[in-house]
Amino acid sequence: MLIKILVDNTAEEGFESTHGFSALIEDDAKFLFDVGPNELFLKNAKTMNVDLSAINTVVLSHGHWDHGNGLLNLSNKRLILHPDCFLERFRKRNNTPVGLSMSKEQLQGNYEIVESRDPYWISDKMVFLGEIPRENDFESKESPFLLSDGSPDFVPDDSAIAIKSEKGLIVISGCAHAGICNTVSYAKKVCEQGMVFAVLGGFHLKELDEVTKKTIQFFMEEKVSVVGPTHCTSFKVRDEFKKYLDVLDLNAGNQVEL
Ligand SMILES: [Zn+2]
Ligand SMILES: [Zn+2]
C-alpha cells in the first residue's frame, strides 16, 4: 500500500507546508484522506504528479478547519465522514472558530455525502472507523474546544483509517483527538486483527507528559514496527518516540510504501 503526504506542517524541498493534513491512500482502492485547510493539497499533488481527477472518494478524519476547509476546492466526489463533523466549534482559549468553514448544505451540491458513526468499509481491506470509543483511562480526558452552547467539545467525530495487511494492521489518523491508543485498539477490534504493523498521522501529543509516556508504552507493548507521528505531534514528542521505536519522518511530498 502507498501513502502520499500532500499536506503537512513540514514539507520536503520543492513542496509547501502549512498547518494541516492531507494524504492520498492507495491499496485495493484509492482515496483522499483529509484535504488540509485550503488549496495547497492540489498544488502539492501536482508537484508529485498525482492526478486527483481520478480519485472518486474523500474521507474526512474530523470536522476541523485544518483537515477539511480544502473541501471547497473539489467536486463530483463521494465524501465519507462522521455526522458531527459539521458541529459549530470554538477554541476555549479565545473563542475563535475551529470547525469547518462550510455547512453540510454548501457541500451537498459538490459531493455525495456518506455519514457514518459506524465503521464504513471503503474496500475489502480499508475501513473508515467512524466514532472511536474512548476506553482507556489516560487519553481524551481534557479538551481545548467548546461547542456553541459552551459545553466542552471532545470531537466525537474524530476518526481514522485502518487497513488490513499481511504484515499486520496499518492505522492512519488525522489528529487523533480520540487518542491514538484508543484509535489503534478500536482498529484491532473492527478489523479482527491482533498485530499492528504501522501507525501514521497526527497523534495530537505536544508535551512529554503522562499521556505521551503511556502512549509510547502502548506502542511498545503492541510491538508496532513502523511509527509515523506527524502534523499535530510536537518535535520533542517525536524525538521521545525515536528513543524507543522505529520512527518515520513524514513531510508533505513524501511517499511511503508499506
Ligand atoms: Zn483537530
Ligand atoms: Zn489537525
UniProtKB/TrEMBL annotation:
| Domain Metallo-beta-lactamase, first and last residues per copy | 19-231
Q: Which residues form a coiled coil?
A: none
Which is one GO molecular function term here?
transferase activity
InterPro entries assigned: DHPS-like_MBL-fold (IPR041712), Metallo-B-lactamas (IPR001279), Metallo-beta-lactamase_dom (IPR052926), RibonucZ/Hydroxyglut_hydro (IPR036866)
Q: Which UniProt keywords apply?
A: Hydrolase
Protein name (database record) = MBL fold metallo-hydrolase
